[in-house]
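Tip: read the tokens left to right.
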């Protein structure tokens, strides 16, 4: 008589883990370009104010490595926008691409802006002892380090929450709950580029206004970084500007607004970046504050995606 084999509940069945066999090559390469720009930004920011970048092919172009680090983060934003569109056009969206995108965003829009802000303030910390004493100077530098850590951690939490709550339908690409990490980084980086690459070109104007503005930006940058970090982890709704503009037919006024923005970018890209990112960041706060008093704003502030 054959004895039937009984299953022992104490025996653990080891399941074979799923292996990743196929990935979308082109979107993944574009996403990795985003992460590469973030790493390059950190490397350039670590060089400080002592060196100036002068490309061989463009001998008339010169900028500080702080400004170059900021431009690398903006190049990462371009790659971040392109990888999603490339994946949707090629019908190759996947969970691997979403996770890879978030990991690269942590580097480019979380760690890199925080490190850039920290190194920029440290490079100008020699201005502080002229106003106060050394003890307050040490406290301020430590406070800036603490703010940089908070911002980076808020970016990590923001992207982790996005991965958990993200939906794949089209409505998930119209609104965000909380300030997205690219505009948060753009608000910080645009001010750095404005202070490093625009104001030095006009600081010879009489009156001393631009020299004062340079110092104000330096010491206001930690507070702006802290605000951007907190906005990322809130539930304040922000619109997906690119998807809302490109999706469907728009009014003629929208076309004129886009045309004005493009002309502003062509005329002065540094000023355009500062105005664009700062207005976008303040827009979500103002609309959220006015939504209890204006039903129209309240209808338009319902977040569809994290």
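Filled-in amino acids:
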């Amino acid at each position: 008589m054959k004895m039937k084999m009984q299953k022992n509940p104490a025996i653990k069945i080891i399941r074979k883990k799923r292996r990743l066999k196929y990935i979308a090559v082109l979107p993944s390469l574009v996403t990795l370009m985003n992460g590469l720009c973030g790493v390059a930004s950190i490397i350039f920011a670590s060089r400080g104010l002592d060196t100036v970048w002068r490309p061989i092919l463009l001998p008339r172009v010169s900028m500080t490595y702080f400004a170059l680090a900021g431009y690398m983060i903006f190049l990462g934003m371009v790659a971040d926008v392109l990888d999603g569109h490339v994946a949707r056009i090629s019908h190759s969206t996947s969970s691997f691409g979403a996770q890879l995108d978030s990991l690269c965003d942590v580097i480019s829009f979380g760690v890199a802006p925080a490190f850039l802000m920290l190194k920029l303030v440290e490079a100008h910390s020699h201005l502080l002892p002229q106003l106060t004493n050394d003890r307050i100077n040490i406290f301020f530098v430590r406070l800036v380090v603490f703010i940089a850590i908070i911002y980076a951690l808020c970016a990590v939490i923001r992207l982790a929450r996005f991965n958990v709550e993200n939906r794949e339908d089209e409505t998930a690409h119209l609104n965000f709950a909380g300030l997205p990490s690219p505009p948060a980084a753009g608000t910080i980086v645009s001010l750095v580029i404005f202070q490093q690459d625009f104001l030095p070109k006009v600081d010879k104007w009489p009156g001393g206004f631009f020299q004062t503005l340079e110092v104000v930006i330096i010491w206001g940058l930690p507070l702006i970084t802290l605000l951007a970090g907190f906005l990322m982890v809130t539930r304040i709704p922000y619109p997906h500007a690119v998807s809302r503009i490109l999706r469907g037919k728009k009014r003629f006024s929208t076309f004129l607004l886009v045309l004005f923005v493009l002309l502003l970018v062509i005329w002065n890209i540094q000023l355009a970046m500062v105005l664009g990112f700062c207005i976008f960041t303040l827009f979500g706060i103002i609309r959220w504050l006015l939504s209890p008093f204006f039903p129209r704003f309240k209808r338009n502030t319902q977040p569809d995606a994290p």
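The chain has a mean pLDDT of 77. The first helix runs from residue 25 to 45.
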